[in-house]
Amino acid sequence: MAAVARTLTLVVVVVASAVAETCVEGEEVEDTVLLAHAAHAAHATTYCREVQALLDSEYGEKIGKTGELFGLGQSWEKMEAIYTWKDFLEAVCTYNKWAEGANEPAFLGDSDVKIKAMTVVGMMANVKVETLHWTACKERLSLPDGSCPCHTDPEFVGGCSSGTTDHYNSVNAAKDAGFTVTTCNGVSAPADGCTDFWGNALDPKDCWYGRGVTQLTWPANYGMLQDIIQKVTGQDLCNNPDFVCNTAENGFVTAIGYWMKNCQEWDASHTFDAALAAIRPANTQANPERRASFYEWLKALGISPVTTTPKPPMPDEGETQVKAGEGCWQIADRCCDGQGADYATVICDPPACSPGPSAGTTIKYNCKGCN
């Protein structure tokens, strides 16, 4: 990286000197301007090759130097943005530095720069919603009595989530979300504890609420990323989940790790539905907004969306094979659209989804209720 920057400096300065020798007396201003450009070029940021290839393409210019296409870094409803385009680019390079050393696939590693641009669009269309237009990292939880501090504080817009500060724990991971893995690799309460969005210390067992660019939630999902995040950053998600929100780059690194764990459908088709499957949002109400952004941004980049034959809807009753990373909630939501919370009554074998089936297992379901 340093060698590249040094070569760039020498080339520009040599050009500047050569032009300067051709200037007639009294035109020192041309010298000054050219040397100023040389100094700017010498200090320009050079990113890892996956990012630089995107930035140097026609798509990089259309996205904008500060990610203007996606609205990154821009305030929303009088709330300041906490995520920037620079944070994202640096997170990609941080992740890819580890991936290269570990012989793992790089994020944005496709040789086709158009696919790189589409991947960025696919992620951004989802996470702009997850972060409340780039303004939030920690989930805005309601208090145990259901009240939302937003309603009494005019500084905040957007209200609270449906979750409460005493909800996201191992017990509810099984009872309410249908997870078969209910700890963060054996940890039910992080050693470092946590605070909520409002700055209040929580009971450590309740620390598994949504954080970061993808709003990572529930102990099993933190556990899924523990190993990779520890290798990339040296931090232990299971004992310090608040790490995700310590910096904006951390939030993006965690999101990239999550995407790479769930991007099989995206790599195969590059459609909006595949991008949605990589993020797997629990709340589907904002999916029309995600879809609209995806197509709007592809059009702005001059990229035609991939056209595919829509998948036929799942039958109301039948069998399906459990996908990697799916818990009971996700299985029910996939088979019976919008009925994830009803998994205990629509997953029939195993009865009430218990014991929780592992990936590759065939289960029986009935969206109208098991007999």
Automatic annotation (TrEMBL):
Gene3D superfamilies: 1.10.530.10
Disulfide bond in keyword set: yes
InterPro entries: Glyco_hydro_19_cat (IPR000726), Lysozyme-like_dom_sf (IPR023346)
Keyword rRNA-binding included in the entry's annotation: no
Superkingdom per UniProt: Eukaryota
Keywords linked to the UniProt accession: Disulfide bond, Plant defense, Signal
Domain Glycoside hydrolase family 19 catalytic per the UniProt entry, residue ranges: 160-291
Signal peptide span: 1-26
PANTHER family xrefs: CHITINASE 12, CHITINASE-RELATED
Protein name: Glycoside hydrolase family 19 catalytic domain-containing protein
Species assigned in the record: Durusdinium trenchii
